[in-house]
Amino acid sequence: MWETLTDNPEVLYGAVLALLIVILLTPAVGGMARMLGVVDRPGGRRLNRSTVPRLGGLALFFGIFVPALAFLPMNQETKGLLLGAAVATTVGAIDDFRGLVWWEKLGGQILAAAIPTGFGIWVHRFTFPILGVHALPEWVGVPLTVLWIVALMNMVNFLDGLDGLAAGVCGISGFTFCLIALSLGRPDPALLAAVVFGACLGFLRHNFYPARIFMGDSGAMLLGFTLGALAIQGLLKTAAVATLLLPLLVLAIPIFDTSFVVAKRLKYRQPVYGADRYHLHHRFMNIGFSQPRAALTMWAWCAILAGTALATRFIHPHAHGVWRTGPTIAVALIGAVALATSIYMVYLLEIVKLANPRIRRREQAAREAAERRTA
After folding, report:
1. How far apart are CA 295 and CA 273, in angstroms?
2. How far apart are CA 357 and CA 351, in angstroms?
3. CA nearest 304: which of 272, 333, 261?
4. Distances in whole angstroms, Cα of residue 168 to Cα of each of 113, 182, 190, 246, 347
5. Nearest CA among 31, 94, 81, 100 for reference residue 59
6. Residue 253 — pLDDT band, cuts 50, 70, 90?
7. Average pLDDT value for residue range 91-107
8. CA 40, 41, 43, 44 torsion: positive or negative?
9. Radius of gyration of the chain from Cα atoms?
10. Which residue range(s) make up the domain with 278?
11. Less CB within 10 Å around the terminal CB: N or C of the chain?
C-alpha cells in the first residue's frame, strides 16, 4: 500500500486540493443560496433552530470534480464517473430549488446511476467466502450496479439530518476506501476516494454544529453516487475474498439507518420518501444527546466498523492455507468490538427507549405530528 502511495503522490495532492476548494467555495455557495431563497427553515426532520442555506453540494461537486480532472487519467471509467456525478448533483440541486415528486427524483437517480455502467463500471463478478469467484452476466451485473448506487444515494440523503453527520460518515468511508484501494493496487479509485475524504473534511469546516450551510440533496446524492460507484470500481471489481463485505461494513450505518426507517414507515403506512423523525440521529436526540454528541457518537461507530473492514483486508489469519494464532485473535477481537458496539447502539436506541415512558410518549407525539403533516 505504501509503495502504491509513494508512486502516486497525486492521491495526497487530490485530497488537499479538494479540502481547500470546498473550504474556500462553500461560503460563496451559501451566500448564493440565501439570495435565491434556497434555505432550510426549522421544522420537519431538520433539527436546526434558524434558517440555514442548503446547496452545499455545489461546493462539494467542484471540490471533487476539479481534482479529478487534474489528477485522474481521462479514460472511460473516469468519464462515466464524472458525468454521472454531474447528473446526480444536478438532480439534487433541482430538488433543492423547487422540490421534486418522488418519482421524478427516483428517475433522475436511476439516470445518474446508469451512466457509469455504460462506461464499464458495473459488477462483473462477486467473490464469496468459501464459494470463490463467480462471474456475472451483464444483464445481471448492470441492474445490480444501478440498484446499489441508487440505494446508496438515498441512504446518504436519509442520513443528512444532523449537522455534520452525513459529511463525517462519508469522509470516514472515503478514507477507508482509499486505503483499501491502495492495498489492492488501484491508484485511480484510491485518488477519487481521497478526494471525497478531503471534500467532506473541508465541508465539515462549515457544516459541523452549528451548521452554517447544509449539503442538501445535491450533496447527499453526489456523495452517495460517488461512494457507490467507488465501491464497485475500486473493490468489487477485484478478486479478493473480503471485497464482498468491505463496502457493507464501511457503509453499515447508512444501510442500517435506511433499513430501519423504511421498515418503520411501511409499518405505519407512511410514504417511504416522506420526512419523519425515525432516524437514528433523531433517536439519539430523543434520549438526551446534544447534536455534537450524537454526530460524534455515530462517527465513532462508523470508524469502528471501518476499522473492522480494514482489519479484514490487512490482517490475514489464514495466510497460505494455514491458520495463524496471533492474526486470528486480532481479527476476532476487532470483530467482537464492532459487534459489541453495534449491539450497544441498538440497545441504547431501542430497548432503553421502550423502558422510558417519557421518551415513548415523546416519540408517539412526534409520530402523530408526522401523520397530521402527511394527511
Report:
1. 23
2. 12
3. 333
4. 23, 21, 18, 18, 23
5. 31
6. confident
7. 93
8. negative
9. 20
10. 2-374
11. C
